[in-house]
Amino acid sequence: MKAARKTADGRFEIAEVDEPQLPADDWVKARVRMAGICGTDLRHWEKAEEELHCCIMGHELAGEVVEVGPAVSRVAIGDRVLVESVLGCGHCDWCRVQQYNRCPDLYPTRRASVSRAYAEYVVGPQHKFHRLPDNVGYDDAALLDTYAVALHAQHLSGLTIGSRVAIIGAGPIGLGQLMLAKASGATVTIIDKMPHALALAERLGADHTLHPDDEDPEAAIFGQTDDRGADIVFECAGGESMPDTLPLATRLVRRGGKVVIVGGFDAGAIAIPLEWQRIQMSEITLIPSASFAFHDIHAEQVEVLDLVTRGVLKTQELITHRFPLDQINEAFEAAQDRARTGAIFVGLTI
What we know:
There is one protein chain. The protein is an alpha/beta fold. It folds into two domains: 2-143 and 315-349, Quinone Oxidoreductase, Chain A, domain 1 (Alpha-Beta Complex), CATH 3.90.180; 149-288, NAD(P)-binding Rossmann-like Domain (Rossmann fold). It has 13 helices and 17 strands. Helix 5 crosses helix 6. The longest helix has 14 residues, at 144-157. The radius of gyration is 20 Å and the shape is globular. InterPro entries: ADH-like_C, ADH-like_N, ADH_Zn_CS, ER, GroES-like_sf, NAD(P)-bd_dom_sf, Zn_alcohol_dh. It comes from Sphingomonas yabuuchiae.
């Protein structure tokens, strides 16, 4: 099959590789039709990482079932499916209670099967394949990993109707966070440096949008909240901006409020100075949020599929670019340079 493999310099090469085979009788094979590029993928872009050399990457995907094992009952050949790529080892203490996003072996496990979206075929256990309703396309479904990340963060936050919310970052996760918060009755201010992203946030229902070069975020948020600060701040930018955006989040939140850390970090020790005395004396809660899993008895991936099906979450408005797999390097360049390209969500047709 055709696949995009990481090169030594962190870009991609198109290669012919062995097609994956079903390793168990309850596994499924799907033909990938659409895959997304997210912030995690971009943090590995053009970085020389020996452990990823020749790996097939990508974890936002949808496709069509082409083969099933004899014990598969959830899906059938020909079904259009969303493929959930958060797959734990299945036997650790966290996986046993459906907290598989906390599995110690999460990344090696998922990269061995379902988290290989930049290729023609993937395999995985049947419980990770979810049928798509007729009104949800492959491109819509490719956004649902992102939306499930935002839903998990909202569940952790305890957001309720009337909450005053600030969101830092208007990429796909931040915009998903915005739509979920608005659907739950919150008042939302979203902060970003990209005018095209802020314009989209307005169209998606943001009560206030804020460019930090044009307006002081602290003055604006405190002015909107009776000089108290936001009840909940979602940090959705992540990556290289974290040394600035995480301290900002702690300054925007009210006493007794919550900061939810949704944006991702690079591996290793990272020093980010915070006003720890103020955080402690104000009893501000810092909540790390990692990927998604289950909320009570509900799979968060299935919950966002339902929200898209019912029109609560929008998708097409976020999809700004589509590239064929052969142009994956151009796709990553477009996603990386969003100030020039106006990119929000970049998809790969496979």
